[in-house]
């Protein structure tokens, strides 16, 4: 079997070079996401013959793998995790698989697998210029929110640094209290752990973020990291709901200040929440990245 070990913050230097060469735009190949959410997915990794393998198990799901990353023979890379799964006695699962990944698998191991899409996993990828400029009739409501925000508040945009991280954590606690009726207690606890990991290890994770100081207080923030050479991944965005236009302003300012050098901005999944799906669709994604899982055929 492959020698899987738990992911720690010290493994960034080992894992990140694989992500730096990654060509897939999905948010699963982000060290920050993997590390910050490992408490939920029991994430482990293994290295063998120049390939990175990531194995995890979400609550209630079968254990499975991410698409292997490396250079050389993908067929051997896939066969290695197939053997690993068989020796563990697991039903084989490859999660967070895009159509592009499945086509690569089919080209080397034709007919052996079935691909099942999961709508809640689809990722919303936008043109960075669209989110920066908000040009056109379809973005008029967003411009209206932003203009009202600018008329209403004294504000400034700040890069997230260690000096304001305590204020960002305070905002997150206020947001949790505000959203107590919108999330289950367990989901809030899981996100709280991921948020604290991200902020406590902000510099080591290589995160890039910004915040809005409104009337003297940090009342919105966003952060993420590059996923590929042309795509920036936004991992988190928070704003108090009583800040009129705050989310639209945070979205636009973050895109302008932190994502202008990238062709695309990936704002991740809607996790099956109708309200979040509507909000993400209202920004008109350039790419709705389909994802699903792969299992054995038969």
Kindly list the characteristics that best describe this protein:
single chain, Aminopeptidase, 298 residues, 12 helices, seven-stranded mixed beta sheet, 40% helix, alpha+beta
Description of the molecule:
The strands form three sheets. Strands 9-10-11-12-13-8-14 form a seven-stranded mixed β-sheet, with helices on both faces. Strands 1, 2, 3, 4 and 5 form a five-stranded antiparallel β-sheet that branches. It has helices at 12-20, 31-36, 38-41, 74-88, 99-108, 128-133, 140-152, 165-178, 185-200, 202-205, 246-258, 274-281, and strands spanning 5-6, 44-48, 51-56, 64-65, 69-70, 93-98, 113-117, 123-127, 155-159, 208-214, 217-228, 231-239, 264-266, 287-289, 291-296. Helix content is 40%, strand content 26%. By secondary structure, the protein is α+β, with helices and mostly antiparallel strands. The protein folds into two domains: 5-121, Aminopeptidase, CATH 3.40.630; 123-268, Gcn5-related N-acetyltransferase (GNAT) (Aminopeptidase), CATH 3.40.630.30. The longest helix is centred in the middle third of the chain and has 16 residues, at 185-200. It is built from twelve helices and 15 strands.
């Amino acid at each position: 079997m492959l020698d899987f070990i738990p992911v720690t913050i010290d493994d960034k230097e080992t894992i990140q070079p694989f992500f730096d060469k990654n060509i897939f735009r999905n948010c699963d190949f982000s060290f920050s996401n993997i590390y910050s959410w490992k408490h939920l997915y029991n994430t482990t990794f293994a290295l063998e013959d120049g390939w990175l393998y990531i194995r995890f198990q979400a609550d209630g799901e079968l254990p499975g793998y991410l698409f292997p990353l490396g250079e050389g023979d993908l067929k051997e890379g896939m066969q290695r995790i197939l053997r690993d799964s068989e020796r563990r006695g697991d039903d084989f699962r490859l999660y967070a698989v895009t159509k592009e990944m499945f086509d690569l698998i089919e080209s080397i191991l034709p007919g052996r697998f079935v691909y099942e899409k999961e709508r809640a996993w689809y990722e919303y990828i936008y043109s960075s210029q669209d989110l920066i400029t908000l040009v056109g009739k379809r973005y008029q409501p967003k411009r209206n929110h932003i203009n009202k925000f600018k008329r209403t508040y004294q504000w400034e945009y700040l890069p997230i640094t260690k000096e304001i991280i305590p204020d960002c954590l305070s905002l997150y606690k206020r947001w949790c209290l505000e959203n107590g009726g919108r999330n289950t207690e367990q989901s809030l606890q899981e996100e709280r752990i991921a948020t604290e990991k991200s902020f406590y290890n902000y510099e080591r994770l290589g995160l890039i973020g910004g915040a809005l100081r409104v009337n003297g207080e940090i009342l919105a923030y966003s952060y993420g990291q590059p996923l590929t050479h042309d795509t920036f991944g936004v991992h988190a965005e928070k704003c108090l709901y009583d800040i009129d236009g705050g989310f639209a302003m945070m979205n636009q300012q973050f895109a302008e200040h932190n994502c202008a050098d990238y062709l695309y901005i990936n704002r991740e999944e809607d996790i099956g929440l109708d309200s979040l799906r509507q909000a993400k669709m209202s920004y008109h994604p350039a790419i709705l990245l389909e994802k699903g899982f792969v299992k054995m055929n038969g």
